[in-house]
Design brief:
Blueprint (H helix, E strand, L loop, with lengths): L14 H14 L3 E5 L5 E4 L1 H7 L11 H5 L4 H13 L3 E9 L2 E14 L2 E11 L1 H77 L5 H40 L3 E5 H10 L2 H6 L3 E6 L4 E5 H18 L9 E9 L2 E8 L6 H4 L19 H11 L4 E5 L7 E7 L5 E3 L3
Parallel strand pairs: 7-9
Antiparallel strand pairs: 1-2, 1-5, 3-4, 4-5, 6-8, 8-13, 9-10, 10-12, 11-12
The protein binds adenosine-5'-diphosphate and magnesium ion.
Length: 414
């Protein structure tokens, strides 16, 4: 039996030996193998097939699948009929109940021919119930995970929105509180001015106004007016800062820019401020990608950081005061660093600088809102991070990390 045209070949064996080998292959295989005649009756059933059916050979042989399984056998009967009609093999999955348990089989049914004559079909079946259950379990786990992810994303959106609102509410309350002081100073100052004017009027009516009194009262008027002016300015600044945050939350306009070019151009507008503080501003754009950017908001953040460096960093005697703005691309995020070579920030202040109203310049023009606003724009509008980092040498480093692919920053379409 070594002719390749035969149904199988076996090296150096007699026909009896080959038959014995085939029979042990069929007996030992973990596949269920059977043959049926043209009336769909089983004429052969291997050990695995009998074992799966859980029946003795005489209850299987000469019976059909319908005899054994009733209506459940309709699909397998239908496929057997098609294989007999077309003479072509068909592979398909079937569901059958065995021993009271549902099972899934992957079965290949193919025609059996002898001397050109159709004798029936043979089938090879694998029980894939366990695999199918695993797939079903995986699929439902996957759906669960997708749902969980969906919920998580929605919760995250809500949290971001809430944080923005909470930030704004906190800021408004704080500003209302802070504005109180300058307003009181304003009211007291103007009441005092009215008193002085009344005094002036009386003196002039009764002709008792001496040049010395006039000079003294004028001096008092000037002092009060200066005080009122400063207070009102401070109140206006505080109000302006809530307007900034409130407006920036609605009015985001995305512009298509080459990031590096945009940074250079924008930083040039800050140069007059730097010159007044006797400092220099340098930019280092390591990348120049085309992006869609909420430019107004990023300008606001960088401006606040630069103004802080000019206001706070160069108070000591710094030989070469300089602010450096570096732009880099780190994976799917943009990184902007605002460095200065000034006095740095004390350990104590470090933990509080992003708090609203924290300032080391209370009474001399500090509102304590610059960093809070920069932080709230970074996290709220850009979904990014603003951190104070360590740096080599003197001074401070503020680092902005802005993820690309948000409503405020994305790669520009080509
Ligand atoms: N570049 C810097 N160098 C030194 N100190 C800084 C710098 N930036 C911020 N600070 C500190 O952080 C505090 C908070 O800053 P900010 O919120 O802008 O409020 P303000 O500038 O009104 O004081 C400042 O008062 C200052 O002490
Ligand atoms: Mg500031």
């Amino acid at each position: 039996m070594s002719d390749a045209s035969e149904s199988a070949v076996a090296e150096g064996m007699t026909e009896a030996q080959t038959r014995e080998l085939l029979s042990s292959i069929l007996g030992a295989t973990p596949l269920a193998i059977y043959a049926k005649d043209t009336d769909h009756r089983f004429v052969f059933s291997n050990r695995m097939h009998l074992q799966l059916l859980g029946l003795p050979p005489d209850q299987v042989l000469r019976h059909t699948d319908t005899d054994l399984f009733g209506d459940e056998a309709a699909p397998v009967e239908e496929v057997t009929r098609r294989v007999l009609d077309t003479g072509r093999p068909i592979a398909k999955e079937f569901e059958l109940t065995l021993g009271g348990e549902p099972h899934t089989f992957l079965e290949t049914i193919y025609p059996l021919q002898t001397a050109g004559e159709l004798r029936g079909v043979a089938g090879i079946a694998t029980d894939i119930t366990a695999r199918r259950r695993l797939e079903d379990a995986l699929r439902s786990k996957n759906t669960e995970l997708e749902e969980a992810l969906d919920t998580l994303e929605r919760t995250q959106d809500i949290l971001i929105e809430q944080r923005k609102l909470a930030g704004l509410a906190e800021l408004s309350t704080g500003v209302a509180h802070e504005v109180n002081t300058p307003l009181h100073v304003g009211i007291m100052g103007s009441t005092y001015i009215l008193d002085v004017i009344r005094e002036l009027e009386e003196a002039s009516h009764s002709d008792t106004l001496t040049p010395a009194t006039l000079a003294q009262l004028t001096e008092q008027l000037k002092e009060s007016a200066t005080l009122i002016c400063g207070s009102l300015q401070r109140a206006a600044e505080l109000i302006q800062s809530i307007k900034q945050v409130a407006a920036d939350r609605q009015g985001q306009t995305l512009r298509r820019v080459q990031l590096g070019d945009w940074l250079e151009r924008f930083v040039r507008t800050l140069e007059p401020l730097a010159r007044r503080a006797g400092a220099e501003i340098r930019t280092e754009a390591l990348h120049n990608p085309a992006v869609m950017l909420a430019t107004g908001q990023l300008e606001q953040i960088i401006t606040n950081l630069v103004i802080n460096a000019l206001d706070h960093a160069f108070t000591g005697d710094c030989a070469d005061p300089c602010v450096t703005i570096q732009l880099d691309q780190v994976g799917e995020a943009l990184q902007v660093r605002v460095d200065d070579n000034g006095v740095g920030i004390s350990e104590e202040a470090r933990t509080r600088i992003f708090e609203p109203f924290f300032t080391t310049r209370r009474g001399t023009g500090g509102t304590g809102l610059g960093l809070h606003i920069a932080w709230s724009l970074t996290t709220g509008i850009f979904e990014g991070e603003l951190m104070l980092r360590d740096k080599e040498g003197p001074g401070s480093r503020f680092q902005l990390t802005l993820p690309v692919g948000t409503a405020s920053l994305d790669w520009a379409p080509t």
